[in-house]
Amino acid sequence: MTKPFKQHLIDPEICIRCHTCEATCPIEAITHNDDNVVVDFDKCNFCMDCIPVCPTGSIDEWRVVSVPYTVDAQFDFLELPEQEDFPASSPEQDSSIEALDADVADLLAQAHAGAGGKSRAPDSASKPAINLYNAGKPAVVTVQGNYRLTSPQSDSDVRHIILDLGRVPFPVLEGQSVGVVPPGLDDSGKPYLPRLYSVSSPRDGERPNYNNLSLTVKREDQGVCSRYLCDLKKGDTINITGPFGATFLMPDDPSAKLLMICTGTGSAPFRGFTMRYERSHGDTAAVPPLMLVFGARTPESLPYFGPLKKIPDTMLSKHLVFSRVEGQQKRYVQDELKQQHENVASLLADPHAYIYICGLRAMEDGVEQALTEIAQGVGQDWITIRDQMREQGRYHVETY
Amino acid sequence: MAAMSNVSYDTMIPNNVGLSSDRRVLKALEKWHPGYINWWNDLIPQKFQDSLVYLRTAVSVDAKGWAKFDYVKMPDYRWGILLAPQVEDRKIPCGESTGEAVWQEVPGEFRSTLRRLIVIQGDTEPASIEQQRFLGNSAPSLYDLRNLFQINVEEGRHLWSMVYLLQKYFGADGREEADGLLQRSSGSEEAPRMLGAFNEETPDWLSFFMFTYFTDRDGKMQLESLAQSGFDPLSRTCRFMLTEEAHHMFVGETGVGRIVQRTCEAMKAAGIDDPYDTDRIRALGVIDLPTIQKKLNLHYSLSLDLFGQEVSTNAANAFNAGIKGRYMEHRIDDDHKLTNATYPVARVVDGKIVREDAPALTAINMRLRDDYKRDAAGGVGRWNKAIQKAGVEFQLQLPHEAFHRHIGVFAGQPIDINGDFLSQDEFTRKQTDWLPTKADGDFIQSLMVPVYDAGEYAGWIAPPKVGIDNQPGDFEYVQLHMA
Questions:
Q1: Could you give the maximum distance between any two Cα atoms of chain A, in Å?
Q2: Which CATH number describes the domain made up of A257-399?
Q3: A5-9 and A61-65: which strand pairing?
Q4: Which of B21, B79, B158, B271 fits a disulfide with B125 by CB distance 3.0 to 4.6 angstroms?
Q5: Nearest residue to B121 (alpha-carbon basis) of B318, B407, B359
Q6: Which residue would you say has higher pLDDT here, A117 or B356?
Q7: What is the pLDDT, as a whole number, of residue A12?
């Protein structure tokens, strides 16, 4: 049985043959002839040392392949080959360059499965850096702060954890995740598998131009990693890997409209999206370009409830729904979607609209059903719309 | 050595050479520092000094710390002294002492040779910034403006690196030489820079891109050969500089490539097929390909002069001593001593250009120049691919190495771009076909109007395919201070 391979390639149309990557590669996996500089698939161990030294941006190219391109085949490249198309059911089709670590790639594939097919990044999205650090060579970063987001009365302990990256270069885009491997060994004496957490700060840092990022973490009583993170103190150092994820990204398009649907800590990427929007566009649009439908049990257990309220309605239309407020009817995100059916239907018909869903897997069915009903209401088939949006990089699901 | 790859900021001068515990050198550098800052401040127009530029600064010399991008005012750029990590047990790679341990101090017998090499290398770094000082006023985009300034601050840092070597290893003489590097000035009558090509002005952006492509590439070859030096601190310095130099090559190659691309696009859009239909092409506000060829001829021939005499005993001595190696010395499969080896060297015999075998040891310069020619040909081939892809019938080419030379066996010879001898009269008459005229220069100059809106580009140059640091097309690479 053939395995899908991830292969590192260099774009021969962008590369200037300065050979800096070749000089930098610690294991001589990069070589050249008179035509091209190429990466030997049999040698490359994805250490990523060659990525930052490249002056051109030609080196950060990856393909999923059934048979890797040989060195000789790459010498003959006049341009970079397109990503080959695989049959829908083949193992390659499920694989994408969201992560190079197999276990992380599996986690992301599961998280994105709810989209109903292969996810694609928005065409205008910035190019993400992937897997600069792995478990063998993690980034060592310092906890700069660890704040409880939910009220002390709430039984839900959600934390805002700020990590100071110091001088560690760790470029992330909104929507990407980092990996955390809790220290210690599991019951069978093996190292724990990595857990993924969405970054909740924008690309230029929790504070603009500070080299830091934030995570949003809920304490799970049975969760080794979440307890480890929630108990961190200022000044502690931790190992992180990543960045991971190459599809759940924002479009870089001023005319884009975003519908963001989340529950609980699924709000993390949307905090990043919103802050990015605030910092890069400001509050100028006539129609609020961002719409957030956010579900929690109570206002006290809704992360970022306070700061969210302060975001101007002209930028973000906020729809907070609660399922456990005494004396009130239980409401879930799908109920609010149905109530907003006119707005949602107009987004479904808008080629500049993007839908993002993030949170517990349990929310998927309700949201799907609501969207199906809304589409039906305007005589459309949701699955058709969904598949088209997904193909165009406009429909994204990340659930766990 | 992990600790040494991190940059320490505990003195005014960021460094990974333990400056804070080397009081003598630290003091010498701190004394030199104000002069450097004055030189810089007098050089670059004030509005750019006050602008925020999206620059790359090295925070460590290992791969991952290498490219940290942020907005910086140029005078606040942390010029520092960064050496590539020391390689354990490194051996002298060439010459009669091949295989012996490298030197961490300057051997007495090679002191003056080494000092001269370092001063010549050091002199080119501030010279190029001086040559380019006014280009910011006519930048075709903020992207290009940023690339110019990135090159400028890094050339400034390269000067620092050479000054460090002089101050650290050459005592009072070194101090004097370090001061001299700030006293000479490109194009000056009284105290010009040491090498000819570095006294020519860089009047426009096509010249700048040609300069970074051809002349900085000579710098790259020189650094490559010094990176092989048995004097380990020099080797480590040059190895790190080479990583930065790659960006300069990139700016040159893509700059010329983008001009070529824009010209071809404009010709096609206007339905012009003849690349020599100069007036109509220039009327489109783009630079015609034959003019680009002339600029190429000029910069290539000036850069070839930088390799010196084809047969050189100085070069032989430096190689033999293990001070300077060949390009990619470690990949060459020979004895690295060149005891009996020969190398074909260009000569003029009976009005013809021939190659004759000479002792390889004396032909070190010739060999490096040949390596350079191969390296320089690559980008020209890629420009031609773009021309071909656009459907224009024209090919840029490197002129013959004997054309328009001032140093070496071809100096002053009436040889055309194909390497054929002409009569002196005919050669003089045809010069305007091969080298840019004043009218060509005036035309190019007429296009040099600044474009300072984010995401906008002057009409004579195409936008880049990829942004710096993966930034989007409309990224504001320089936040201009326009008070």
A1: 76
A2: 3.40.50.80
A3: antiparallel
A4: B158
A5: B318
A6: B356
A7: 92
Phi, psi of A222 (to 5 degrees): -95, 0
Domain containing residue B131: 2-479
The distance of B321 to chain A (nearest Cα, Å) reads 25
Average pLDDT, chain B: 92
Tokens of A164: 């100071």
- Contact between B285 and B200 (Cβ < 8 Å): no
Contact B468/B143 with Cβ under 8 angstroms? yes
Phi-psi sector, B412: left (phi>0), alpha (psi -120 to 50), beta? left
Fold held by A139-244: Elongation Factor Tu (Ef-tu); domain 3 (2.40.30)
Strand, helix or coil at B243?
helix
How sure is the predictor about A96, in pLDDT bands with cuts at 50, 70 and 90? low
Considering only the beta carbons, identify the residue of A20, A129, A209 that sits closest to B70.
Answer: A209
CB contact under 8 A, A49 and B250: no
The number of C-beta contacts closer than 8 angstroms across A and B is 80
> B interface mutation test: which of A16, A27, A51 has the most B CBs within 10 A?
A16
A5-89 and A257-399, same CATH topology = no
Alpha-carbon torsion (B183, B220, B148, B444), positive or negative: positive
Alpha helices in A118-267 (DSSP H): 224-230
Cβ atoms of B218 and B306 closer than 8 Å:
yes
**A146 neighbors A161 (Cβ within 8 angstroms):** yes
Burial class of A341 by CB neighbour count within 10 A (0 to 12, 13 to 18, 19+): middle
Q: B364-390 and B232-269 helices cross at what angle (nearest 10)?
A: 30
Architecture of domain A5-89: 2-Layer Sandwich (3.30)
Per-residue confidence (pLDDT) for residue A90, from 0 to 100: 53
| Number of domains forming the structure of chain B | 1
Inter-CA distances, A268 with A110, A160, B256, Å? 18, 10, 44
To the nearest 10°, report the CA torsion of B106, B109, B111, B117. -110
Q: In angstroms, rounded to a whole number, what is the distance separating the alpha carbons of residues B34 and B27?
A: 12
- Alpha-carbon distance of A208 to A213, in angstroms, equals 10
Name which of B64, B82, B143 to mutate to probe chain A: the one with the most chain A Cβ atoms within 10 A of its Cβ. Answer: B64
Q: Which CATH number goes with the domain that contains B407?
A: 1.10.620.20
Residues of B in contact with A24 (CB under 8 A): 63, 243
Domain segments of chain A: what residues?
5-89, 139-244, 257-399
Give residue-wise pLDDT tens across range A3-46. Answer: 567 889 999 988 988 888 998 898 899 999 988 999 999 998 88
On the question of pLDDT at A86 being above 70, the answer is no
Q: Shortest CA distance to A10 belongs to which of A85, A88, A87, A73?
A: A73
User: What would the DSSP string read from start to end of B392-427?
Assistant: ------PPPTTTT-SSSTTTT--B-TTS-B--HHHH
Extract the tokens encoding A317: 């239309």
Long-range contacts of the stretch B157-160 (C-beta < 8 A, 24+): B157/B79, B157/B80, B157/B82, B157/B244, B158/B122, B158/B125, B158/B241, B158/B244, B159/B36, B159/B122, B159/B125, B159/B126, B160/B13, B160/B36, B160/B79, B160/B80, B160/B81
B367-378 mean pLDDT: 95
pTM for the whole structure? 0.76
What is residue B483's predicted lDDT score, i.e. its pLDDT? 56
Position B65 confidence tier, pLDDT thresholds 50, 70, 90: low
